[in-house]
Task: inverse folding
């Protein structure tokens, strides 16, 4: 998740070069619980090549590692913010803690940097979202450094926010899909859409993206919600990118002081299919 999207959305004003194209949003019908289902290829010709069902007691260190430990926005990321619940799910939480007599917020996430970095595919996660204001959840792809060289997103990569959500998105009834490219400085560009999702607050939903050399197609609960290509003014990464599941604390999501904590997101699985045809 990029700070520019937060700034642009909070202020309601897009700064120079911040072409966040938030559409009016497609309505998504009643979700199919489980989305793409248990390992079935959602796209003809695609095969499941990587997945984590989050079974067991310990996070699989061959697939994931703690994301961005240390100060991050208005929180401190700690490794135990992300843990398995022993019932087949990854739980990522934000909590209050006292450090040196001051209230701090501990949060975090996991990523696959250096462990698994696909180029193209269909990527999907089944997630139950957080309920409180003040922090946002995300399932996203990125690379580092993103945007080098500027002007060549094929090589420089695209931050691909498959799902971002906080309680201030249409009072907690919508999520966003966002793309960011050409880095995070003056050359930064973005495209995105906010989409309403029926029953978003209840239970699990699947969030996916079909990433090809030509376009990104986003899905919620198996229903296409946003499609963007270079012809639409978007950008496409053609380089390896890592997966991230994260919570972040910041004003974009409202004032965390008003949140009942701990609170967070629950991830049932992450699955990646590749085109083997
Ligand atoms: Ca699971």
Result:
């Amino acid at each position: 998740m990029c700070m520019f999207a937060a700034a642009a959305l909070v202020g309601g004003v897009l700064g120079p070069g911040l072409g966040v194209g938030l559409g009016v949003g497609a309505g998504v019908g009643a979700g199919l619980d489980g989305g793409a289902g248990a390992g079935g290829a959602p796209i003809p010709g695609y095969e499941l090549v990587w997945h984590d069902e989050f079974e067991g007691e310990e996070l699989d260190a061959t697939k994931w590692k703690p994301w961005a430990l240390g100060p991050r926005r208005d929180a401190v990321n700690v490794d135990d913010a992300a843990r398995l619940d022993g019932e087949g799910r990854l739980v990522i939480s934000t909590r209050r803690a006292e450090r040196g007599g001051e209230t701090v917020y501990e949060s975090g996430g996991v990523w696959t940097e250096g462990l698994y970095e696909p180029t193209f595919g269909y990527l999907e996660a089944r997630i139950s979202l957080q309920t409180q204001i003040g922090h946002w959840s995300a399932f996203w792809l990125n690379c580092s450094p993103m945007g080098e060289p500027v002007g060549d997103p094929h090589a420089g990569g695209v931050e691909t926010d498959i799902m971002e959500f906080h309680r201030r998105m249409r009072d907690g009834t919508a999520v966003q899909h966002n793309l960011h490219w050409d880095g995070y400085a003056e050359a930064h560009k973005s495209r995105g859409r906010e989409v309403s999702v029926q029953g978003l607050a209840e239970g699990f939903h699947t969030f996916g993206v079909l990433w090809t050399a030509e376009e990104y197609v986003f899905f919620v609960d198996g229903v296409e919600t946003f499609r963007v290509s270079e012809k639409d003014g978007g950008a496409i990464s053609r380089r390896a990118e890592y997966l991230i599941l994260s919570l972040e604390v910041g004003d974009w999501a409202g004032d965390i002081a008003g949140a009942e904590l701990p609170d967070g997101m629950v991830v049932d699985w992450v699955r990646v299919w590749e085109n083997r045809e």
